[in-house]
């Protein structure tokens, strides 16, 4: 009897332990669910916060209108380009909604300037002046020289489309100018077109204070880069009497500038 009684008591004790384990197990599951809910809540919080907070970034969605183009003087346009270049140097470019700008600009264009730049891949013209869709015309040719087609493009930009500034933009470390300085014989390599281009730059390669150097002389090369920009401007005035006349009547400004590859700064001449 006593043995049976002990067996029953043992069974009861085992049952009690099993029940306790079940309760602990259920409590662990409830605790686990609670913690995972809390975790989800804590992940969601910042997303909800971000959605409700207004963005502080100013995103430009508009493009230049005919009215805005007409209201700006040449001096104001140059000032804005200089301010834009400061933004570029400070890595503070304006945020733009290109999709919206593209949609609006499809109707027409009223750019404020035309920039003639070298083809160099390290001179991103629009970025250099913090500009976007519809802001400027850009013509590019190695060594930023002029030719009939480039001048025709400038006449279209200014006389027809209303731009009030022409900028001839040279840049430091220009390969085309360097080869012109070193008198590279491109023709001997069968590159007649490139030779013609270098011949356009060659006349400005003259001694500086009695010293003729090669392109390894950075100071001399920079001097020739400046001279080349000035020559292009003189050629534009000579070959386009209409633009020259507009400049004399203060309707247009033709200016030179040099982009510094290392600093990002544009020096207006
Ligand atoms: Zn170049």
From TrEMBL:
The keyword GTP-binding does not apply. The keyword Lyase does not apply. Keywords: Membrane, Transmembrane, Transmembrane helix. CDD domains: beta_CA_cladeC. The chain crosses the membrane at residues 21-36. Belongs to the beta-class carbonic anhydrase family. This is Carbonic anhydrase family protein. It comes from Flavivirga amylovorans.
